[in-house]
Amino acid sequence: MLVQRERMRRLASLGSRVGYLALLVAIVAFFVGVLNDLPGWSVAVVVGGFAVATACLVPSIILGYAVKAAAREDRQRAVG
Predict the structure, then answer these.
(1) SS3 state of residue 38
(2) How many other CB atoms are there within 10 angstroms of residue 13's CB atom?
(3) 3-state secondary structure at position 37
(4) Residue ranges of the domains in the chain?
(5) Structure pTM?
(6) What is the pLDDT of residues 20-37, one digit of tens each?
(7) Is-contact 17 53, C-beta < 8 A?
(8) For helices 2-35 and 40-79, what crossing angle results, to 10°?
């Protein structure tokens, strides 16, 4: 069970890194696009970046909270 929990923690961490990287790419593409009168490629990168960030961050945040809650429950059962 601990091995599986560690695997889920790593998966949540990877999802967070990918999601925040996609968000950073979207923000940079937006500012580059604003400086260049919003060409079509920058709009596509911004929308794609936000879509990838949403698809990665939502599940990884939920999974991360679930892993932390399971670890906290194990600690509480061991103490009490």
Answers:
(1) coil
(2) 14
(3) coil
(4) 2-75
(5) 0.86
(6) 999 999 999 999 999 999
(7) no
(8) 150
